Amino acid sequence: MTTAFFDRLADRIATVDSVVSVGLDTDPDRIPDHLQDKDLPQWAFNRRIIDATHEHAACYKPNAAFYESADGWRALRETIAYAHGKDVPVLLDAKRADIGNTTRQYAEMLEAVDAITVNPYMGRDSLQPFLDRADKGVFVLCRTSNPGREDLQDLELDSGEPLYRRVAALADLWNANDNVGLVVGATGPDELETIREAVPSLPFLVPGVGAQGGDAEAAVEYGLTADGVGLVNSSRGIIYAGEQEGDAFAAAAGQAAKRLKRRLNQYRSAD
Amino acid sequence: MTTAFFDRLADRIATVDSVVSVGLDTDPDRIPDHLQDKDLPQWAFNRRIIDATHEHAACYKPNAAFYESADGWRALRETIAYAHGKDVPVLLDAKRADIGNTTRQYAEMLEAVDAITVNPYMGRDSLQPFLDRADKGVFVLCRTSNPGREDLQDLELDSGEPLYRRVAALADLWNANDNVGLVVGATGPDELETIREAVPSLPFLVPGVGAQGGDAEAAVEYGLTADGVGLVNSSRGIIYAGEQEGDAFAAAAGQAAKRLKRRLNQYRSAD
């Protein structure tokens, strides 16, 4: 049996002394000119980003939205294999959920990666094929980093708790295989704290510390479990850190990843 | 300016005298042997299904989950073009939502199709790029047909209404471009009725009348607007209606689509 995802993640965090998740939101329109005539420009871009950042990366998080084409899918496959060649786990940010035979199709995507993000709106059975994979991580959207989180996630239930709190409790209930985490944005540090108190054992994936201006200290303090397992993600803040001319973008991404690692490590407890 | 999606859909419904949505949940493992050695087996399968069913189809609804590979994506593109060649609109069942620059990527998928399904959990801004496309339809998941709908969708809010009712009201509010519909399952006919009363003007996409055993009469009575616009979907009940040997599957699918059309037409009001 393969090692559980969160054990593999804990090992990776220890190896690189970093909880940085590098988001590969690779927009085909933002790839430097000299890579545009490569066979798979997104893959050419990602390979250079991985070369420059892997020493600071606890994981890579490609967002599936950027790879939804025939070439995109090939670029994603190459990217995943290359990250694995550097011993870095890959979390596919797919925000998936569907029913019955359909979700089983999505679960096949999990074969190639180590973990995935899922959307809870359709309920437990829509996530079951992911939850059943004890060797893979499943990060359930709980309280996201965007303004629209107020529309549904913050609604108050008749029990007096907001919907996102119920989602956290449900995810905890669904965690029979110790493979469930939550997505909780750094843009709401108070809610991040209350969610951590409600579900002490679930690792969080915390987006929003980069371009969205979230709270890095809260991301570390509440995003990680007592064992120090969790991820703080930056996408655009790393991969688009430099000028998009020549190969300088990769070195800039490496510097940005290193800076974020150091910034976050200020707040991580000594082992 | 292109015609609004719901006007195009109304025209198509009138032309074929049908509100049947044919779900193209084309599982690569369930394609007959003699098509498995084609260049793109899913496309070979779908082309035969379209040939056999288009006279009864108000739309085709490919589920994106089944096309998440390089070849799958190519098969989907061919399928969409072929359906359009038969003048049938295509609704991509993608259940998408994401934030900012990411959703704009998803919205590009909309270029190829006529409408899409989206997940409301991340709120309005996660759907805005879809909502902004006045020429495209946007079906918001409201109350789905699967058992897991109870986990979140049926939760009672402090206002006394269930979450799915709030989602219906929000979708109505987000309908500035007259391009919003709802996904409401036929497996909950009472809730289907109350949602119809709450949002009289939104067309519904009603899944669950086939393999899931939902209520066809309620699907028609409450799924359609007063103008008769809406869709009742069957996927497996049509495309896997026949034996999966030889080309008989396509004829069986054609018969199944015709039967469903007639069954639903019993409940449609005379014009």
Considering the chains and any ligands shown, give keywords for the structure.
homodimer, about 270 residues, alpha/beta, TIM Barrel, 11 helices, 8 strands, globular
What does this 3D model show about the protein?
2 copies of one chain form a homodimer. The first copy, chain A, is of the alpha/beta class and 271 residues long. Chain A has one domain (5-265): Aldolase class I (TIM Barrel, Alpha-Beta Barrel). Chain A contains 11 helices and 8 strands. Chain A has helices at 5-16, 41-53, 70-85, 100-109, 124-131, 149-152, 163-173, 189-198, 216-223, 236-239, 248-265, and strands at 20-24, 59-62, 91-96, 115-118, 137-143, 180-184, 204-206, 231-234. Chain A has an 8-stranded parallel sheet with strand order 2-1-8-7-6-5-4-3, with helices on both faces. In chain A, α8 (189-198) links the parallel β6 and β7 (204-206). In chain A, α4 packs parallel to α5 and α8 (189-198) packs parallel to α9. Chain A is globular, with a radius of gyration of 18 Å. The mean pLDDT of chain A is 92. Chains A and B meet through α3, α4, α5, α6 and α7 of A and α3, α4, α5 and α6 of B.
